[in-house]
Amino acid sequence: MALRLIWALLVDTPPSSDFLFMHNAALAAAKGDFSFASSDYYTSWAYQLGFTMYEALIVKLFGTPIIFLKVINVLWSTGTVALVYWTAGKAFNEFCGRAAAIAYAFYIPNIVMCSVLTNQHVSMFFFMLGCALLVHRGLTGKYSWLLIGLSFAIGHIMRPIGGVYIAALLVFVTVFRLFRGLLNARDRCLRRQPAS
């Protein structure tokens, strides 16, 4: 977290291009002006509204200085590191959890992007949360599916790549059930064979 925070505080990365347009729209939305929604940008790229409204909420709660958004980016990114650790540790073992978390924590683009007002941090956190819930809670229980779906939905609202995660989820469920079925069939077969 310290490395991300130092980068976000010391490296001046003023918003430009789309990031600037969304930030200005968020500032307007925080003041109650939603006229930006009918602009050419948002009529062409409506999926950016979710992230813009998220930024507007942060501006409304903490004020207009961009540093608040950058520090919150650091928190989302650090939270994602924790989720990577938690998930890999549960799926494999403690060593794998640590290795995955260290690799993610020190991956340079994840550090330098903390100072950029992008939708990647918050969306990645929620997509990773959905994956973590899947690994930790398994495929049973309606509330597990509800929480996984809610996490993916929030991630998708921030950055519309949820379809990739849903496809991966379907592959995971199919492979998991197939693998479990094969293991059960093997165990039944082994139990039937007489001991030699």
Question: How would you portray this structure in words?
Answer:
- It comes from Cohnella faecalis.
- It is a multi-pass membrane protein.
- The structure is a single chain.
- It contains 10 helices and no strands.
- The relative contact order is 0.10.
- The chain is elongated.
- The protein has one domain.
- The chain is mostly helical and 196 residues long.
- Helix 1 packs antiparallel against helix 5 (66-91) and helix 2 packs across helix 4 (49-62).
- The chain has helices at residues 2-10, 17-30, 40-44, 49-62, 66-91, 94-105, 108-112, 120-137, 142-158, 162-192.
- It starts with a helix and ends with a helix.
- Helices cover 77% and strands 0% of the residues.
Break the fold down into its secondary structure elements and pairings.
Layout: H1 2-10, H2 17-30, H3 40-44, H4 49-62, H5 66-91, H6 94-105, H7 108-112, H8 120-137, H9 142-158, H10 162-192
Helix pairs in contact: 1-5, 2-4, 5-6, 5-8, 8-9, 9-10
